Amino acid sequence: MTETYNFFAPTKVLFGPGKLAELGGQALPGKKALVVTTGGKSVKANGYLARVEEQLDRAGVGHVLFDRIEPNPLRDTVNAGGWMAREQGCDFVLALGGGSVMDGSKGICVVAANPGHDEAGNEVAGDIWDYVMGGTARGLPIPNDPLPLVCVTTTAGTGSEVDAGGVLSCKERDEKLRLGSPKLFPRLSVVDPELMLTVPARLTAFQGFDALFHNVECYIANNHTLMGDMICREGVRSAAASLAACVNDGANLEARTRLAFANTLGGYAMVCSGCCGCHGTEHGMSAHHHDLPHGAGLIMIARAYHQHMIDVHACDDRYVDMARLMGAPEVDIEARGASAFVDQLEGLMRACGMAELAMSEWGITRDELPAIAANALSTNDALFGHDPAPLSVDDVTAILEASWC
């Protein structure tokens, strides 16, 4: 553990039921917003978009809509959003949605304020692949400050409302890569669990396990810190205590609020340290299979990933601690040791109806697992670099094979 740390998380957060009603009274960072949503119907059908627009009108802020973000947001879509923000004269971006919308919006903020470059290095319209890291991306420093970002999150999954990173995909290159810079912290975020009451059970589970795993992975990461440990432990405890209740009774506002808290803690956890190879492996999966929800991929591989780390005794004390945080009885810990954590994980998955997810549901074949492992390691080396014990391509392939069905 690192006993010294730097902590910088400058986002103002309005947290709790009903907090969306306070948005219009805040000092917003501009006079014309590009409001970014998915291409789906939920934010419109549930009235969330109209409520946000009402708050912007109350604040005297103009707004235009970009409603094209897809799950695992794509390079071309992010570029189009950035160009639209520039053409429409928007001076900030408001993300209304879940992790894909917030991650995509961070990219839009960059593209709107920065040039791109063609293969010869000539300046052209902004291209986010100049600024993401890994794979075939350029990984250039972001020269100009991105447009300011405001987030109104409608899910409990990614923690992107309080961190400075995101994950974007290039379908043509089978790449899912990280965008990150201290310039990308949102200025203001609204975490209103009332907006999460309408999330279907299956999506609640996918997103909630992602929130849990952010806290879990940052706790076992080899660069974990004192501050991060405090955050992660409460994140694990809160997610484990609330996730099944949210899945089985979506109208349970108390449970939704606690899961939203665990999710936001997961964002702070990633500010303190970073996720590990479990996330990196899933990025390889959804880079090859773009329709695979990130949380579903994590659910399918998490048991094998963590059992591997337990088998090599990477950080047994931390797994025992997390088993206790998730409610494992002492008799189980005495009998199973660190593996009691995987037992608790299995039990939570069963309580949420997630224990039998199959890769084949998303078209993943056993034959392609070695290629997925190689892709994951070659494009997400920073995530694998946080692992408490190193993983080879054979190790990652074995984890995928143990998870495949």
Structural features, described:
With 405 residues, this protein is of the alpha/beta class. The chain folds into two domains: 12-195, Rossmann fold, CATH 3.40.50.1970; 201-404, Dehydroquinate synthase-like, alpha domain, CATH 1.20.1090.10. The protein has helices at residues 42-45, 48-58, 75-87, 99-113, 201-220, 226-248, 253-272, 277-288, 294-311, 316-325, 330-336, 340-351, 369-379, 381-384, 393-403, and strands spanning 12-15, 32-38, 62-69, 92-97, 116-117, 123-124, 149-153, 165-170, 175-180, 188-191. The radius of gyration is 20 Å and the shape is globular. The mean pLDDT is 97.
Count helical runs.
15
- The CATH fourth-level homologous superfamily of the largest domain: Dehydroquinate synthase-like - alpha domain
Calculate the mean pLDDT score and round it.
97
Shape: globular
Strands in their spatial order, largest beta sheet: 1-10-7-4-2-3
Q: Percent helix among the residues? A: 40-55%
Largest sheet: 6 strands, parallel
**Mind telling me the CATH class of the largest domain?**
Mainly Alpha
Assign the structural class, choosing from mainly alpha, mainly beta, alpha/beta, alpha+beta, or little secondary structure.
alpha/beta
CATH architecture of the largest domain: Up-down Bundle
SS strand fraction: 5-15%
What is the number of beta strands? Answer: 10
